[in-house]
Design the sequence.
């Protein structure tokens, strides 16, 4: 097998090499330099050389290099959050040219969707991607007093909210666990606080997010539906500063500054909610004894070691706690640590090496006085990721590398103290080792045609240490084999090709097409409507096969009216393999036998997405619309026939606008509408057990009522002093008080128990919030 | 895991200060009728009871509309058949028939040309040691809960069901448990109310009757899966009918179980 693997890798590289076209022999000159801002270097700046129809990306240290024939050129340098700079240059010799860009965001870091995407997106073969930065994003109304980045992206086409106010998302028909959430290249397993009402990302610590709905670059893998690549901010290497915010539900504080001026910096950012502090004010003893809060802390230190090296360390710690008096407690949280080294070998070759640790744990404590029990579960990853960037030629950027992760899943440990109704239980720990090698090439085949291709070969090894089950289709155990610790139980290999093309029709428009395959070996199955901290990750095993998705997409992109407007239309068709669901009546806690509780099947999703943006002027905003269908077919569910997945929403519309009224005031509004989720309602009822039971037949044939909501926001810039600026943000969630259904339940009618009534529960009918943000 | 449901509620209480419930009108489809069978056999005389009805439109009344004229037989493992007598309409009982622990029983029903069968093994008796009140401080403050004490037999799988009556009225809280975490332990099981309302609180002077059942695994599965939406609530993403152990296309269950009862008055 090893030799086969070797051949594959060889094939993969030769494939890439072949794509490197030779350049013409006419004499060229080398222009190189640095793109930076007044404060620090800029990551990922783009240099568009108009006459040469070339786009050059600066590397993560801001360095760029380009070879040009003699002549006059216009350089247009842009970067997210920065004012675009235009410079003319006559090229007649090799020379160094540095660019300094100005920050165009106001002093406070806020989120709104990027209104500054430049024309380079037309030429790039990348599709289905959207980058949002905390800086350029100006105004969208706050939710619960926070500008939550995972909620902001829900306003884009193809990305759906998993529920009222929630940070959980469904991308192009995928499930909530099929999104790869990366915080500085390290996977985050539970991206939600407080049952999903907040995301784990403190807005003050986030630099930007890039969402890939398709065409994931081959360095990303391991989830079927999307990649959410979140970059954390690096500290200001020039001067100390502090910023923070005080809101109704939470407050936060960020400190940053140089460790050694202009060479190294730190940033530390903390956030805590105080819902429980409010609870404590309640005179009602039934309420004031409960606990409910979360906190998180982000820290990062960056060291610039000479011109060629940069070292970063970052850490995250977050935890949620819910408690009922002293009787019942639930806590969960993520802990992440990583070290990253960026190195420039030469003008053409650079590398990024990341070593990381990530854990997610969940603890339940019950103390009734009779029983004192603690249930603990955990997921732990050690990872190493190596990326190389090689500018093979002016027309060809090659990325390659590998990724290795060791997973340890502790599904459940039950311990009790003193006399107790419970035995101590230790469910079998699950070990696995995930590896990937990848390579990709972005090749400018001609002036109009850009091709991106990549390959990713992944292996997932189920490692021993315990019993491994074989289960028949009825869920009966037919075999159980013991494997020693460290022994290879099974290795799954998957080859994931990625291909994308773009063709410039003219200066204003392009068409693109792409195909991507993804494999997923860490699975989370959830049968509840809310995101629960008790939802567990399950690695592939003898019975649980890797999930596979194939996605085809085509798109049309057009800039209008001198780039003041932008129109994107994309359509996709996606198939999903080895999808997992619970059997009816599954007991999901017993992890040793979890495979007896599972069913497997397939899925498909297709749709049309449209995004129309106004990018310039005092009034900016966008309209996004999605028409889609998402279905599953699982043996043992719905008679083995296709059924609508819960997240199948036919229409989804978002209208977002912001208006800069004057220097002080800016206003914003967003309105969303979507078809209600597919849901199973009873088709009848019957008497059982001296009460009424409801009778169900087909899965998800009903719809929740349509959902729509208007949010309003306003920002007031308070008087600026020399070293201090502050701002007040007001928002009103659900401004016209639409009673959207959070759940619909059936029960005996209160005034006539012989009848049944339907009850709709609405959350958040009007929810005002105010927060004060400062920076000095 | 039931606790989790309550936690969700707490959260909603706090964050969703503006959350509200409202009765709405909903048009539901009609499905073809299906037979509903609720069949029990206990280790006590008169415990054999089979109720036969049909599913109905959700807008109709909640009354029990029994299906008459069925042939209902219970067969023991020696091949002896006992026919249950219809009294009243749709309810089939027997005055003397009782089951024995460790024996297998077969239920056979013929009605309007359709046949339904099921088998159930009556588990062994696990002595009920005590039924008592105990105060716990959960999300709505201190509240009395009925607790049940028994000692789980070690080394075998056991399944239990608890039925609570307050002043002679069934509380509708469906509680079933297994010994996955408590094999061989002395267990103090908390009986949770169907809903955490003021009404459901146990008050001084309330007469509590507790039935303690040992049930077999498929029957446990049935009661466990009632949580999947059979009672009309919850936040299950995929409501389904409880997992039945009846063959022939009816919904419901057949349970051969042992039964012990204890009463107490709330102090």
Sequence:
């Amino acid at each position: 097998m090893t030799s086969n693997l070797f051949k594959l890798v060889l094939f993969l590289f030769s494939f890439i090499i072949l794509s490197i076209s030779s350049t013409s022999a006419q004499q060229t000159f080398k222009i190189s330099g640095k793109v930076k801002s007044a404060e620090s270097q800029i990551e990922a700046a783009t240099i568009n050389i108009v006459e040469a129809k070339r786009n050059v990306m600066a590397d993560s240290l801001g360095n760029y290099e380009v070879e040009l024939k003699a002549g006059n050129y216009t350089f247009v340098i842009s970067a997210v959050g920065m004012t675009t700079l235009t410079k003319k240059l006559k090229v007649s010799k090799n020379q160094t040219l540095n660019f300094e860009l100005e920050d165009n965001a106001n002093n406070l870091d806020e989120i709104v969707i990027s209104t500054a995407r430049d024309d380079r997106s037309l030429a790039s073969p990348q599709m289905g991607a959207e980058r949002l930065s905390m800086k350029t994003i100006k105004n969208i109304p706050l939710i619960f007093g926070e500008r939550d980045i995972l909620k902001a992206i829900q306003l884009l086409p193809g990305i759906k909210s998993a529920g009222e106010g929630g940070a959980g998302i469904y991308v192009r028909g995928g499930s909530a666990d099929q999104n790869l959430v990366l915080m500085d290249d390290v996977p985050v397993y539970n991206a939600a606080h407080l049952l999903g009402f907040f995301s784990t990302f403190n807005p003050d610590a986030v630099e930007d997010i890039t969402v890939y709905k398709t065409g994931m670059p081959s360095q990303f893998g391991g989830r079927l539906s999307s990649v959410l690549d979140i970059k954390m901010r690096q500290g200001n290497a020039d001067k100390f500063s502090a910023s923070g915010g005080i809101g109704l539900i939470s407050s936060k504080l960020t400190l940053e500054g140089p460790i050694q001026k202009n060479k190294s910096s730190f940033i530390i950012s903390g956030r805590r909610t105080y819902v429980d502090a409010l609870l404590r004010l309640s005179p009602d003893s039934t309420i004031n004894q409960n606990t409910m809060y979360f906190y998180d802390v982000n820290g990062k230190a960056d060291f610039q070691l000479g011109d060629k090296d940069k070292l970063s360390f970052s850490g995250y710690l977050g935890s949620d706690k819910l408690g009922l008096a002293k009787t019942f407690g639930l806590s969960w949280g993520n802990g992440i640590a990583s070290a990253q080294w960026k190195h420039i070998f030469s003008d053409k070759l650079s590398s990024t090496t990341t070593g990381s640790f990530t854990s997610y744990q969940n603890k339940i404590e019950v103390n009734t006085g009779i029983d004192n029990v603690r249930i603990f579960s955990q997921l732990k990853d050690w990872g190493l990721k190596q990326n190389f960037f090689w500018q093979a030629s002016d027309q060809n950027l090659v990325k390659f590398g590998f990724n290795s992760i060791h997973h340890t899943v502790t599904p459940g440990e039950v311990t009790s103290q003193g006399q107790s109704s419970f035995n101590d239980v230790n469910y079998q720990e699950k070990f696995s080792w995930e590896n990937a090698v990848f390579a990709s090439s972005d090749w400018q085949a001609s002036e109009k045609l850009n091709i991106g291709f990549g390959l990713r070969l992944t292996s997932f090894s189920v490692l021993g240490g315990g019993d491994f089950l074989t289960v028949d289709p009825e869920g009966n155990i037919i075999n159980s084999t013991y494997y020693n610790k460290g022994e290879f139980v099974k290795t799954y290999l998957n080859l994931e090709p990625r291909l994308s093309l773009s063709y410039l029709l003219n200066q204003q428009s392009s068409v693109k097409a792409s195909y991507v395959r993804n494999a997923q070996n860490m699975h989370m199955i959830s049968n509840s409507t809310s995101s629960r901290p008790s939802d567990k990750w399950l690695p592939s095993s003898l019975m649980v096969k890797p999930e596979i998705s194939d996605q085809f997409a085509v798109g049309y992109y057009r800039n209008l009216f001198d780039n003041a407007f932008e129109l994107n239309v994309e359509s996709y068709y996606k198939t999903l393999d080895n999808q997992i669901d619970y059997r009816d009546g599954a007991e999901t806690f017993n992890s040793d036998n979890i495979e007896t509780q599972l069913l497997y099947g397939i899925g498909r999703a297709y749709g049309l997405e449209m995004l129309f943006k106004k990018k310039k002027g005092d009034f900016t905003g966008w309209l996004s619309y999605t028409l889609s269908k998402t279905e599953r077919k699982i043996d043992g569910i719905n008679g083995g026939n296709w059924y609508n997945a819960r997240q199948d929403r036919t229409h989804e519309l978002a209208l977002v606008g912001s208006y800069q009224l004057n220097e002080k005031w800016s206003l914003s509004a967003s309105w969303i509408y979507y078809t209600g989720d597919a849901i199973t309602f009873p088709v009848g009822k019957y008497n059982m057990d001296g009460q009424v039971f409801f009778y169900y037949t087909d899965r998800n044939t009903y719809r929740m009522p349509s959902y729509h909501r208007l949010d309003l926001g306003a920002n007031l810039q308070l008087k600026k002093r020399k070293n201090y600026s502050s701002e007040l943000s007001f928002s009103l969630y659900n401004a016209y008080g639409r009673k959207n259904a959070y759940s619909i339940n059936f029960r005996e009618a209160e005034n006539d128990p012989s009848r049944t009534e339907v009850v709709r529960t609405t959350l958040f009918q009007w929810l005002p919030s105010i927060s004060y943000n400062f920076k000095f | 895991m039931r606790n989790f449901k309550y936690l969700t509620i707490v959260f909603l209480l706090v964050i969703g200060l503006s959350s509200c419930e409202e009765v709405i009108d909903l048009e539901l489809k009609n499905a073809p009728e299906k037979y509903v069978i609720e069949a029990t056999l206990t280790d006590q005389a008169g415990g054999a009871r089979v109720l036969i009805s049909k599913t109905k439109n959700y807008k109709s009344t909640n009354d029990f509309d029994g299906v008459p004229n069925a042939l209902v037989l219970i067969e023991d493992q020696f091949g002896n058949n006992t026919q249950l007598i219809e009294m009243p309409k749709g309810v089939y009982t027997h005055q003397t028939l009782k089951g024995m622990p460790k024996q297998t029983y077969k239920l056979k029903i013929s009605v309007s040309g359709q046949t339904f069968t099921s088998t159930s093994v009556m588990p062994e008796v696990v002595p009920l040691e005590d039924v008592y009140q105990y105060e716990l401080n959960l999300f709505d403050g201190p509240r009395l809960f009925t607790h049940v004490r028994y000692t789980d037999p070690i080394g075998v799988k056991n399944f239990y069901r608890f039925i609570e009556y307050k002043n002679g009225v069934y509380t509708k809280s469906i509680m079933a448990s297994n010994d996955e975490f408590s094999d061989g332990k002395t267990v103090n099981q908390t009986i949770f109310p169907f809903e955490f309302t003021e009404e459901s609180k146990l008050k001084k002077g309330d007469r509590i009757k507790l039935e303690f059942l040992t049930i077999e695994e498929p029957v446990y599965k049935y009661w466990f899966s009632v949580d999947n939406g059979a009672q009309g609530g919850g936040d299950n993403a995929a409501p389904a009918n409880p997992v039945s152990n009846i063959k022939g296309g009816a919904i419901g269950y057949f349970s051969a179980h042992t039964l012990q009862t204890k009463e107490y008055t709330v102090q």
Remarks:
- The first strand of chain B starts at residue 20 and ends at 24.
- The helical segments of chain B are 2-15, 217-224.
